[in-house]
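hiii, so i know i said id send this last week but things got crazy w the move. better late than never?? heres the sequnce for the chain we talked about at the cafe, plus the structure i predicted for it. fair warning i was half asleep when i ran it
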Amino acid sequence: MPLSEDEQRILSQIEQQFYESDPAFAATVRETTLYRHAFRRVKWAALGLVAGLAFLVATLQIHVLVSFIGFVIMLACAFIIERNVRAMGRVGLEQVTATFRQGKLREGFGSGRFTQRFRKEE
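okay and structure toks below
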């Protein structure tokens, strides 16, 4: 059901007050999507997968049952990755790769002196 004109006016006033009261938070809310949260979980789970593999290899000499903990960690991280990639879907993956291509995910790394020097040499 569409909003009436009064409801649209009230909603726009609330939105305007929100932008005026805290512009930094408003910008954060505007830029944050559900896909970013899922992608962040995928990144942490991938890190956990690598850590589980390192734990498995390191403890394989100690005891097989201790190294099984590393396998369980890897399995749990793989399930987390699978669930979040499935939740993101094709649209989410396209959006994340588009923001990565634009350099929005690498802003902190790409704005350094090294990158500026490299760009000057081109």
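btw The chain has a mean pLDDT of 80. thought thatd interest u
miss u guys!!
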